[in-house]
Write a structure and sequence with these properties.
alpha/beta; six-stranded mixed β-sheet; 11 helices; globular
Length: about 350
């Protein structure tokens, strides 16, 4: 399969659960392409349907409508035996690790190989190789109860790699971890993607996770795909309310300013250290209020944003925004910030 080819295609996918209270529509007309070799994020708030979507990707949940193609194979047309074979090429990593507590680390990693019928000696050799990859070769004989949360997730990653998968699905894989451990696990996933070329799909409710490792992202909002694009584009120019809620951290709105006009300025790595706001104030001799400021690391590059309150004078505000745009910055008026 050549670079830039869709490895996963989701077409017209809907999922309805039947409950005692009636039908529950969880996903509706989902269409997505996930490219071979990329780290793709699927983000949404709790209840948006993202965990159901990840289970539909390998048909652990069969869609009510639509289908999923993996490597050009329509999963809806496969027998159970053929589905099982496809699932062997899809590794999964879960929030709660799902390790077998009665087995040591080595045997946990060997488990999917045993199911696939691999001989014990060969399975153990593969497991040791993977434990070396995730930095846990010294923990082969330890049991899950003796490991930290980050170590458990590294074992889960090694296990997910056992059958040489084409795809790894991560369902809230860092939600149970502290920030420092999360950073280490994400760095490991990024390294695995780079070294092995495995496509990784990350399901999360945390924008910081997407910013850290994903190239592209789909935002799920109320059963639908609200927006799809490169992470830096969505950060720079969100086009939907769902995307804006993720870009602007909750609770960062400010009220009772004299002017209701604000503009959002996005800095990239080359411009984030220039005193453009101070220079603008000197140029126009009008003060501005800084309402919100934030710096983020998106796929290894520094991005920042500042929201400032513009003068009430409309012409002065337009001139200020033109001044900033002429310096290569992304500038947009935001009317719903205050």
């Amino acid at each position: 399969m050549s670079a830039g080819t869709s490895l996963i295609k989701i077409r017209g996918l809907s999922k309805v659960f039947k409950t005692d209270a009636g039908e529950l529509n969880v996903l509706e007309d989902i269409n997505l392409d996930i490219m071979e070799g990329e780290i793709f994020g699927i983000i949404g708030m709790s209840g948006a349907g993202k965990s159901t979507l990840v289970r539909c990707l390998n048909f652990l949940e069969k869609p009510t409508k639509g289908t999923v193609y993996i490597d050009n194979q329509d999963l809806s047309c496969l027998s159970q035996k053929e589905l099982y074979k496809i699932r062997q090429s899809i590794g999964m990593i879960f929030q709660q690790f799902n390790l077998l507590m009665q087995r040591n680390v080595l045997k946990n990693v060997c488990f999917p190989l045993e199911i696939a019928g691999v001989k014990k000696k060969e399975a153990e050799a593969r497991a040791y190789e993977l434990l070396e990859l995730v930095g846990l070769s010294d923990k082969a004989k330890a049991y899950p109860s003796q490991l930290s949360g980050g170590q458990k997730q590294r074992v889960a990653i090694a296990r997910a790699l056992a059958n040489n998968p084409k795809v790894i699905l991560c369902d809230e894989a860092t939600s149970a971890l502290d920030p420092a451990t999360t950073k280490g696990v994400l760095a490991l996933l990024k390294d695995i993607n780079k070294r092995l070329g495995i496509t990784i799909v990350i399901i999360t409710h945390e924008m910081s996770v997407v910013e850290e490792v994903c190239q592209r992202v789909a935002i799920i909002d109320s059963r639908h795909i609200a927006e799809v694009g490169y992470v830096h584009d969505i950060f720079t120019k969100p086009t939907t309310d769902a995307a804006r809620r993720l870009v602007f951290p909750e609770g960062e709105r400010v009220e009772n300013f004299i002017s209701s006009r604000c503009c959002r300025i996005v800095f990239n790595g080359s411009s984030s250290f220039e005193p453009v706001i101070a220079n603008m104030v000197l140029e126009f001799r009008q003060p501005v209020n800084i309402i919100f400021a934030d710096t983020r690391n998106i796929d290894g590059k520094a991005f920042g944003q500042i929201v400032i309150q513009l003068p009430e004078d409309k012409l002065a505000g337009e001139k200020m925004m033109a001044y900033l745009r002429n310096r290569g910055l992304t500038v947009e008026e935001v009317k719903d910030f205050v």
